[in-house]
Amino acid sequence: xxxxxxxxxxxxxxxxxxxxxxxxxxxxxxxxxxxxxxxxxxxxxxxxxxxxxxxxxxxxxxxxxxxxxxxxxxxxxxxxxxxxxxxxxxxxxxxxxxxxxxxxxxxxxxxxxxxxxxxxxxxxxxxxxxxxxxxxxxxxxxxxxxxxxxxxxxxxxxxxxxxxxxxxxxxxxxxxxxxxxxxxxxxxxxxxxxxxxxxxxxxxxxxxxxxxxxxxxxxxxxxxxxxx
Length: 228
Fold this sequence. Notes:
Layout: H1 3-15, E1 17-21, E2 26-28, E3 36-50, E4 56-62, E5 67-68, E6 83-96, H2 97-106, H3 108-134, H4 136-152, E7 153-155, E8 161-163, H5 169-176, H6 180-192, E9 196-199, E10 202-205, H7 208-214
Antiparallel strand pairs: 1-6, 2-6, 3-4, 3-5, 3-6, 7-8, 8-10, 9-10
Helix pairs in contact: 3-4, 4-5, 4-7, 5-6
């Protein structure tokens, strides 16, 4: 936990309400009035949006020390533009939006850090959408895999990177805004080429450089090239 995460953890722990949520629970829904901000202590939560044709687009998969619902601060009559769904049993600190606003106003230094953090989140969001739009379905999968290695990857001495977060092909498809069938085909093609392997929902990337070369990866800072 870095210094900023520690500051927000202490803030939410002191002023928020601790709660536990089960898998598949919806914390908030797209279109609901945004009244609270959430700090994830443990677990994993997906942030998604429904496209015009009814498909689900997963924007983020947030783990411990992440904040969700953050975009509603200092906005009147704000509604959630996305849905938060629990992927695994999680624990959260919940803080009323107005209360957090007052706390930040009282602590200008923390307010500045919050704005810096929010800007990084916006850059992450923009880069993900850029890859989805510009690189096609194949590029969307490759960039998603790269982001997963940066976020949940555990590198080995032989160059392999184990993504220590289980994902179904449907969940990967939602991250790429495409169908599960197409993801199945592309993942199997990558497996045949020995670029990756998968077992019980866990993916190991054997050659991440090939993925980067295929999409002309710009080697964005690791704090931007993430999926959380």
